[in-house]
Amino acid sequence: MSSSPPSRGRPRDPRSHEAIIDATAKLVVEVGYAATSIGAVAARAGVGKDTIYRRWPGKPELVFEAVFTTTDDAPAPDTGTLAGDLTVMLQGLVDEFHAPAAAAALPGLLADFAADPELRARIRGDFLAPSKDRLLVVFERAATRGEIAAETPVDLVLDTLAGAVFFHVGLVGERPDRQLAATLAAVVAKGIEVR
Amino acid sequence: MSSSPPSRGRPRDPRSHEAIIDATAKLVVEVGYAATSIGAVAARAGVGKDTIYRRWPGKPELVFEAVFTTTDDAPAPDTGTLAGDLTVMLQGLVDEFHAPAAAAALPGLLADFAADPELRARIRGDFLAPSKDRLLVVFERAATRGEIAAETPVDLVLDTLAGAVFFHVGLVGERPDRQLAATLAAVVAKGIEVR
């Protein structure tokens, strides 16, 4: 984004960014993924379609950001233990997958992901990058405390955490019990600890 | 199945069952999920459509069985350690998700799963039951050896294993390295061990 030229028109308005994200999340719940068009989002957010297309390549990216990156801007948790930090991150994932917007967006989003090799190739790079960055901070602190080895495979752990929540809450549709995040965090933390 | 009355027609022919499963897996790879109709499967397998509908409620169930239950009939692994047994089970999952049939079936299958609440409700009961049975045998042996506590949550561990492989191989599309199953098995086994 930062490398794109500051071309036509006014500088970006953070309020319009938030209005677009907000309109997208609400529209998906109200009318479903299929009917959530860029045009409908633009109308709801009070912006032009080109404003949206300047920031997002298409609907999947926009919906993904609106539904599944709600905790990405939060600083990495720092509870003092690896299990505690993973619990905080997992609780964010559980909340996202359990929210009405996730249930509304997931079918269409998954179909688009799975059917589009280019989109698929961008999952790791674009969609998962902020989560990976937060997990790397958590891992660095855990390594400094001596809880894990420096070479703990961050991508695999990230996929394990996200996959477990996705499968348990998103796909199988289990109602997440209040201990889900803590239980999963305890298992994974113990599994990668050096002791 | 065994509780249904032995009604109209001949007894079931295991060869036709295998021919149907085989035709389904091949058709999905050749023409994709959308074009894999019950009629096309019937023609390819040399059976009538009603033969298929007597055994499977519809296409998603048939495709799921053809693509994702290839190891369900194998006995539960018995390598002598929990990590070893989980490695064998995970390698089966990795192989399934990495096979061409999975790549071909996953988009449509996920869309059908996610869009159909009834189908979704059957995932745990019908689709995951054989895997859960095998994992329960593995867990019983591990508990007898003192590796894990008797109350280890089998559903959550199953979702963690399946979700990790699904996310890593199926969704993100990482080419699974040869150590993937063993690495994941080691993490999860260590994470649920009593020590």
The CATH topology name of chain A reads Tetracycline Repressor, domain 2
Morphology of chain A? elongated
Per CATH, the class of chain A reads: Mainly Alpha
Assembly classification: homodimer
* CATH homologous superfamily caption of chain A: Tetracycline Repressor, domain 2
How many E strands of chain A?
0
Largest sheet of chain A: none
The total domain count of chain A is 1
Please work out how many helical segments of chain A DSSP would assign.
Answer: 10
Estimate the helix proportion of chain A, in percent: 55-70%
Q: How large is the radius of gyration of chain A?
A: 18 Å
Distance between the termini of chain A: 42 Å
Please report which band the strand proportion of chain A falls in: under 5%, 5-15%, 15-25%, 25-35%, 35-45% or over 45%.
under 5%
Mean pLDDT of chain A: 88
Would you identify the regions of chain A where 5 or more consecutive residues have pLDDT less than 50?
1-9
Largest Cβ-defined interface: A-B, 41 and 41 residues
Structural class given helices, strands, pairing of chain A? mainly alpha
| CATH architecture field of chain A | Orthogonal Bundle
